[in-house]
Here is the input.
Amino acid sequence: MIIALRNCPENTKCTLVDSEIPESLKNRLMGMGWIPGKTIQVVRRAPMGDPTIYLVDSTKIFLREEESRLIRVKPIYPAPLSVVEKGTYEIVKFFGGGPRFVERIKVNGLAIGKRIHVLDNVLKGKLTVEIDGHIFRIGRRLSEKIFVGPVNA
Here is the structure.
């Protein structure tokens, strides 16, 4: 799934595919190693969501939302559940979250090693998933903390 860099939550790693940013900014970023095929890590978002810190090699770069919306990337697995396309995945780790998060994942039957089927993901709002034959919806914030990998057939 190719998505806008802006849609990647914190701690996501992705591969740069292309961009539609102005030439002046594109040339500056390319000079710092932002070339197609490079791995980008989303490090941290500002409290109000803008700007965001990205890491390429050892270079940290701050980009505004309007710039990061123009950059296309492909998530690298393990990836947050919020950025994967329809299909079957295995939960490999949870990132962050306090006691409420732990309680919510237990109630929904989520656990490391569990298979999860993504039935619908529109990149905004809730995801429709199936776990152990039960279909339910997971909110965006929760899905950003659940990292999955592809199921090996």
Q: What stands out?
A: The radius of gyration is 16 Å. Helices lie at 23-31, 65-68, 99-107, 140-143. The chain has two domains: 3-75, 79-150.
